[in-house]
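Page 37, continued from 36.
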């Protein structure tokens, strides 16, 4: 063996981490030898591995264990006694616990070979005793994932084969979580004389094999065959119960401390959900249920997918494998599945998962011969709504599900009298119907929000929709009609002519309220954008919306417009308009992904890599937008996972095939929408928006930035907000005691005069511009409670400004001691 080791060890040492073992000439030489030779090498290697580990050569010992594992997956001539010898050479002793070095050997591969031996003949008592000891040791409390769990399951499988008294499959599950416990109880309670027992055990036996990203054709065939033998209805019912169990499992954080010695402690957390082995089982369960999915099961898969992609600090997604199985199941369930994917997409922040969902939708669209946008139109459920309403009869009561102001609400009435809530008596007499109504309300709200976000992102696509399609999937749709009706559309006529129009009542009107011929069969509709027309026409549309008291679900007539500036014309290929800001990276990351941008958070461990670009693909134009940021490397300003708390912003660029594109060549609508996104990132994530940031310490070098941003020039979003306030303020209680300047809403209180910045919402007090810190109440509903019409749906900062103004108007009635101490200075 020494000659082959003399060749193999240097090659293993020189092998890169990504190189394959089969690429090494020495390993190829081993594989060309006889099975008997390879078996002798396997028996000899543990001693070599132990010597290498004793001398600190852990890399080589790991690589040799990999060689052993590869050989153990082939056909060898090892006997039962040889496998017993191997386990002992790994350090296993039936009288002691498992040594740490044991897990450095290919124990699982060895156990797999022992399982094959056990199927051919009974095992000896010494080997059985060692396996029983190994099985017991891997059930130590706290061992929940990884190799120990897999070893526990494999030893249990072998011991179960030995103890088996019939020909039925032996099925075991890790019982360290609710799913494993429920499955184990099911197997234990199964009547093994029942004709379907073998089919159930055969089905359950295949779930731990769900280790890949999707089922192989063979596994899919086996799952379907077992399901048919049991009965699809029975599998669906029992499988839904198990899947609901997984969805209901509480995610528990468990603080941990690792002692390095010398007083050095490392604090971290682990998270309890499902064991690693049972996560694989859950995938097999989901693959089985995929062709059986009905509406309730699709809803459950949607809920579970969102849960599995919940981001855990320092870990990533809670259970990405299970989540991907849910997405795959949804993708293979036609239009209802696509609708569910659209609902769950807005709850998921990981860029790679967003891309996976987009691929699923694209593949489903290709199968139907339509575009991804069209299949999302087709898949959007209407929940039985007509013109945004659905009325259900509950005996003496009527319930109306209604979309109003972007919210799905249920209104109750009895004999024409409105009720405050659902009658308590119905919980006993109509429990199932109430549950269905509540589900419909929640899903209608989620679908409305998802489709509103889709429309909001679609401006940049400049999509044109044929009138026949628009009439069927928008105008006649109970939910999408509520989104489409208040929006302005550009009607493209034959010959290249167009008209901009809004559908009011039964007819179409232009910005001046004049009738427009309705769309004909050959008309195409495009979502109107203010950058497409002169400013005078935009103002005309705004006046029409106010006159008609028509609130748009997305900002359209009041949408911010970003035009190319002279400095950007001079820099040609980049814009510094949004540079030199300091953003909270976590907020920036979440918001960027919500808007469809791809971004990899900057980490301390990325040595030499302190800059990154958030990237927005623009496939309709063959472009991509980039917003560059760099890490703020200040002492201790990173999370436990090593993610920097703050980033500084830099250039905005547009690229095509990796090459910069001159800004004048970028379509104005695309440029405007990209810059609007970037302005939104700054407007939400800037430290200047946090009224407590400076007082809580912040970063001393950026205090000046915080002051300049908090009370500086207005962004385009803030300018639009100022226009809204100019109309709102005179109609509110604060109207007579406030004035609007270029950057502030100035409120005259009883004790002081206050200047509320229209961009950040932060406050200065006259006469000396003393800063007043008031933490906003996220539940404030100043606009809603005012009863004053606003022509576009919610602006959080606008609500904050109005709530602060109403509070400060009566500053003599404030009781909050934190605010009073500041007023008394």
């Amino acid at each position: 063996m020494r000659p082959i080791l003399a060749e193999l060890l240097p090659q293993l040492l020189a092998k890169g981490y990504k190189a394959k073992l089969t690429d090494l000439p020495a390993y190829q030489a081993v594989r060309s030898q006889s099975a008997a030779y390879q078996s002798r090498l396997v028996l000899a290697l543990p001693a070599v591995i132990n010597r290498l580990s004793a001398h600190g050569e852990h890399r080589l010992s790991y690589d040799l264990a990999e060689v052993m594992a590869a050989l153990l997956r082939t056909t060898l001539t090892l006997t039962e006694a040889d496998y017993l010898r191997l386990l002992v050479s790994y350090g296993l002793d039936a009288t002691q616990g498992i040594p740490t070095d044991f897990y450095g050997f290919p124990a699982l591969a060895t156990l797999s070979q022992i399982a094959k031996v056990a199927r051919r003949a009974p095992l000896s008592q010494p080997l059985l005793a060692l396996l029983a000891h190994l099985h017991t040791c891997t059930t130590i409390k706290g061992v929940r994932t990884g190799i120990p769990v897999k070893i526990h399951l494999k030893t249990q499988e072998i011991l179960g084969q030995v103890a088996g008294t019939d020909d039925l499959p032996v099925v075991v599950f890790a019982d360290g979580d609710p799913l494993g416990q429920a499955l184990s109880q099911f197997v234990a309670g199964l009547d093994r004389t029942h004709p379907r027992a073998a089919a159930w055990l055969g089905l359950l036996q295949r779930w731990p094999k769900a280790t890949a990203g999707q089922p192989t054709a063979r596994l899919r065939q086996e799952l379907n065959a077992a399901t048919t033998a049991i009965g699809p209805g029975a599998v669906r019912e029992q499988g839904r119960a198990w899947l609901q169990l997984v969805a209901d499992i509480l995610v528990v954080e468990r603080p941990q401390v690792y002692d390095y010695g010398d007083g050095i402690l490392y604090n971290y957390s682990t998270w309890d959900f499902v064991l690693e082995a049972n996560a694989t089982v859950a995938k097999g369960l989901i693959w089985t249920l995929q062709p059986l999915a009905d509406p309730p099961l699709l809803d459950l898969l949607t809920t579970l997918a969102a849960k599995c992609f919940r981001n855990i600090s320092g870990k990533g997604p809670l259970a990405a494998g299970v989540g991907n199985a849910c997405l795959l199941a949804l993708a293979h369930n036609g239009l209802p599945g696509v609708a569910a994917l659209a609902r769950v997409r807005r709850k998921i922040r990981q860029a790679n998962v967003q891309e996976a969902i987009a691929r699923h939708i694209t593949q489903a669209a290709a199968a139907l011969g339509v575009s991804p946008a069209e299949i999302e139109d087709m898949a959007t459920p209407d929940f039985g709504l007509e013109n945004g309403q659905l009325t259900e009869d509950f005996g003496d009561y009527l319930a109306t599900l209604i979309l109003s102001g972007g919210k799905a609400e249920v209104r109750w009435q009895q004999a024409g009298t409105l009720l405050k809530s659902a009658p308590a008596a119905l919980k006993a007499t109509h429990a199932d119907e109430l549950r269905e109504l509540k589900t419909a309300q929640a899903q209608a709200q989620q679908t409305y929000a998802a489709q509103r976000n889709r429309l909001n992102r679609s401006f940049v696509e400049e999509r044109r929709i044929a009138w026949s399609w628009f009439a069927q999937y928008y105008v006649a749709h109970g939910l999408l009609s509520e989104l489409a009706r208040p929006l302005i559309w550009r009607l493209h006529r034959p010959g290249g002519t167009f008209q901009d129009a809004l559908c009011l009542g039964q007819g179409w009107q232009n910005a001046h309220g004049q009738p427009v011929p309705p769309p004909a069969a050959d008309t195409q509709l495009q979502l109107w954008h203010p950058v497409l027309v002169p400013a005078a026409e935009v103002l005309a549309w705004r006046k029409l919306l106010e006159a008609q008291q028509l609130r748009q679900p997305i900002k359209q007539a009041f949408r911010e417009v970003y035009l190319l500036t002279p400095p950007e014309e001079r820099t040609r290929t980049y814009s510094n308009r949004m540079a030199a800001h300091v953003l909270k990276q976590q907020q920036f990351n979440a918001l960027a992904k919500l808007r469809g941008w791809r971004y990899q958070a900057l980490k301390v461990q990325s040595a030499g890599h302190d800059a990154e670009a958030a990237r927005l693909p623009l496939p309709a134009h063959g472009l991509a937008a980039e917003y560059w940021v760099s890490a703020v490397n200040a002492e201790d300003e990173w999370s436990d996972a090593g993610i920097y708390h703050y980033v500084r912003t830099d250039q905005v660029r547009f690229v095509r095939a990796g090459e910069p594109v001159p800004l004048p060549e970028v379509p104005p609508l695309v440029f405007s929408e990209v810059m609007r996104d970037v302005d939104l990132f700054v407007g939400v994530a800037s430290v200047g928006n946090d009224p407590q940031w400076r007082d809580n310490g912040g970063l001393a070098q950026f205090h000046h930035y915080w002051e300049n941003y908090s009370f500086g020039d207005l962004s385009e979003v803030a300018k639009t907000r100022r226009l809204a306030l100019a109309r709102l303020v005179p109609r509110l209680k604060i109207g007579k005691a406030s004035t609007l300047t270029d950057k502030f809403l100035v409120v005259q209180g009883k004790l002081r005069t206050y200047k509320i910045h229209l961009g950040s919402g932060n406050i200065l007090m006259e006469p000396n511009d003393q800063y007043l810190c008031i933490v906003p109440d996220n539940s404030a509903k100043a606009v809603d409670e005012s009863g004053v019409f606003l022509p576009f749906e919610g602006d959080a900062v606008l609500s904050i400004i109005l709530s602060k103004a109403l509070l400060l108007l009566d500053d003599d009635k404030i009781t909050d001691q934190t605010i009073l101490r500041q007023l008394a200075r």
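Residues 563 and 672 are 6 Å apart (CA to CA). Flag for discussion at group meeting. The first strand starts at residue 252 and ends at 261.
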